[in-house]
């Protein structure tokens, strides 16, 4: 991208301390800065001033003389990779604890996930109420509860049907069908969110899928594909349905966290997840309790499963903001590799020579995906409108980065006329 002249503002907006996790509902009026218990600094800022500041910051960022590899040199890129691998390790942890539970006859897929949604509620609902108060929170419930119900329903059912798929079909078949989640994300993002993928991005996704193909091939060669399932057709259909629900829920969550604070999204995901999963567990898991094993080890495995899954849910919004739902799903392809590494220590498995090659291939695909020359990567969302004006000013968003850039360049001043600095 060629460099252009630095933009100037005819009327400098007034901006004090930037809100690191703003409400996103639009506030107008004078600046009102308040410290909160989570270490954030919240700001009530004129929407016109904020829009001007974001516009100036985006112009500065996009006017840089970038190269095809410029985004790879940013901290954002490496953070996306790091968070993606944390999420993959969390998924590996949940799979490991589920294997422990299954080994002693405790197969309760809906019930064991119930604790995750309960923990999300206990952690994020008090934070949401602290920021909003009961009156504003009830207003959100009245206006947007149905949207969060749909998000939670998609998420809960995606978890449920994927677990059922692994019960009926073999591992190789289920993982192959899970590629469909990436296809769903790309199609939905293109049609509903107006995301336009470059050829290099599609190439990167295909390279990652090729790496996953090597992992599956090595599983087949070593006989680690699980053999013949109980009912292959039923299992494959469950896997296809679970992957579809996962893809839809990931795109929906990306839309949500780009427009709303993370604590709001996760609190409602927890509340409705408890309700939906609780009903489902009462209906489908009650017979499983009769033959289940209950002891100290099972309790520890449930705690481990819940902590891994809750960490996964809490970090997922960051990669959805800084990257996209597509990058989110592609990063999770490495979970199979980490699973084998843990399996060598826990279950006595051996690492096939294809595994390191496949892991490197997936990481190379992620690098290729970002060879587009954009310094903002996928953090600038097309559905948020001009200058991201419909987006939340939250951690990982292009909007917050633009505000930081505008302040650093001296394009934004405080109400005393000096350059504003974040606390």
Q: How are the SSEs ordered, and which strands pair?
A:
Blueprint: E1 32-35, E2 41-44, H1 47-62, H2 75-103, H3 109-168, H4 171-177, H5 179-191, H6 199-222, H7 232-259, H8 262-284, H9 286-291, H10 296-322, H11 325-331, H12 335-346, H13 354-369, H14 398-408
Antiparallel strand pairs: 1-2
Helix pairs in contact: 1-14, 2-10, 2-12, 3-7, 3-8, 3-10, 4-7, 5-7, 5-11, 6-13, 7-11
Protein name: DUF914-domain-containing protein
GO molecular function: transmembrane transporter activity
Membrane topology: Multi-pass membrane protein
Give an overview in words.
- The protein has 423 residues and is mostly helical.
- It has two domains: 1-66 and 382-423, no CATH class; 71-369, no CATH class.
- Helix content is 66%, strand content 2%.
- The protein has helices spanning 47-62, 75-103, 109-168, 171-177, 179-191, 199-222, 232-259, 262-284, 286-291, 296-322, 325-331, 335-346, 354-369, 398-408; strands at residues 32-35, 41-44.
- Strands 1-2 form a two-stranded antiparallel ribbon.
- A hairpin with a 5-residue loop joins strand 1 and strand 2 (41-44).
- Helix 7 (232-259) crosses helix 11.
- This is DUF914-domain-containing protein.
- The chain crosses the membrane at residues 68-94, 114-133, 145-168, 174-192, 199-217, 237-256, 263-283, 298-320, 327-347, 353-371.
- One of its GO terms (cellular component) is membrane.
- Its main location: membrane.
């Amino acid at each position: 991208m060629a460099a252009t002249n630095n933009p100037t503002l005819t009327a400098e907006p007034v901006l004090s301390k930037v809100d690191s996790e703003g409400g996103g509902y639009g506030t107008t009026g004078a600046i009102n800065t308040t410290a909160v218990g989570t270490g954030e600094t919240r700001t009530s800022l004129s929407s016109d001033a904020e829009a001007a500041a974001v516009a100036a910051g985006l112009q500065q960022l996009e006017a840089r003389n970038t190269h095809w590899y410029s985004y790879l040199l940013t901290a954002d890129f490496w953070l996306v990779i790091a968070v993606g691998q944390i999420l993959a390790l969390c998924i590996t942890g949940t799979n490991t604890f589920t294997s422990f539970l299954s080994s002693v006859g405790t197969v309760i897929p809906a019930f064991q996930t119930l604790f995750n949604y309960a923990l999300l509620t206990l952690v994020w609902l008090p934070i949401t109420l602290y920021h909003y108060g009961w009156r504003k929170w009830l207003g959100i419930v009245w206006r947007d509860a149905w949207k969060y119900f749909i998000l939670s329903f998609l998420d809960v059912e995606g978890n449920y049907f994927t677990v059922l798929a692994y019960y009926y079909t073999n591992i190789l078949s289920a993982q192959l069908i899970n590629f469909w989640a990436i296809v769903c994300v790309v199609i939905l993002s293109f049609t509903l969110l107006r995301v336009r993928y470059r050829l290099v991005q599609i190439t990167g996704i295909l390279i990652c899928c090729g790496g996953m193909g090597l992992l599956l091939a090595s599983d087949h060669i070593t006989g680690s594909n699980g053999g013949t399932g109980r009912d292959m057709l039923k299992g494959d259909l469950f896997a296809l349905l679970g992957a579809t629900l996962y893809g839809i829920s990931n795109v929906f969550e990306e839309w949500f966290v780009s427009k709303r604070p993370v604590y709001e999204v996760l609190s409602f995901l927890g509340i409705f997840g408890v309700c939906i999963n609780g009903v489902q567990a009462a209906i489908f898991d009650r017979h499983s309790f009769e033959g289940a094993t209950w002891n100290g080890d099972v309790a520890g495995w449930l705690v481990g499963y819940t902590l891994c899954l809750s960490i996964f849910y809490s970090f997922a919004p960051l990669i959805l903001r800084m990257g996209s739902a597509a990058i989110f799903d592609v990063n999770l392809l490495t979970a199979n590799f980490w699973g084998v590494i843990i399996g060598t220590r826990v279950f006595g498995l051996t690492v096939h020579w294809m595994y390191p090659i496949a892991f490197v291939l997936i990481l190379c695909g992620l690098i290729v995906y970002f060879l587009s020359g954009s310094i903002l990567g996928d953090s600038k969302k097309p559905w948020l409108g001009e200058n991201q004006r419909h987006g939340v000013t939250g951690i990982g968003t292009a909007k917050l980065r633009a505000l930081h850039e505008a302040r650093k360049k001296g394009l934004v001043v405080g109400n005393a006329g000096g350059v504003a600095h974040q606390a």
